[in-house]
Structure to design on (109 residues):
């Protein structure tokens, strides 16, 4: 059985959510860019923000560290969706040193 045949066999046994996660992994691997997070020169100092917003990832990560729940964040930022928070947490896992430095710089710690 080839690798592609094995992947096809595995996919046929997955539900939609599992397939969506596999697709995110493949896209990330191919592009080395995490979906839902953008860094734009001149917007929030070029820091990575949630797409369609000016909410920096470091702000969300720091809030979470301080004990703010995802539900609270969604209430505080009505334009955010649960999937946006998932993108922020994925971005942090992949770029923790960058985000930690932004927290230190912006929080003055």
């Amino acid at each position: 059985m080839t690798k592609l045949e094995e992947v096809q066999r595995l996919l046929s046994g997955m539900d939609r959510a599992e397939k969506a996660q596999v697709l995110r992994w493949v896209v990330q691997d191919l592009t080395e860019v995490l979906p839902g997070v953008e860094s734009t020169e001149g917007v929030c100092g070029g820091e990575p923000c949630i797409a369609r917003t000016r909410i920096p990832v470091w702000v969300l990560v720091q809030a979470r560290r301080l004990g703010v729940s995802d539900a609270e964040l969604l209430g505080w930022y009505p334009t955010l969706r649960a999937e946006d928070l998932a993108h922020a947490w994925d971005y942090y896992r992949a770029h923790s040193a960058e985000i930690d430095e932004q927290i230190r710089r912006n929080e003055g710690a």
In short: The chain has two domains: 1-32, 36-107. The longest strand covers residues 37-38.
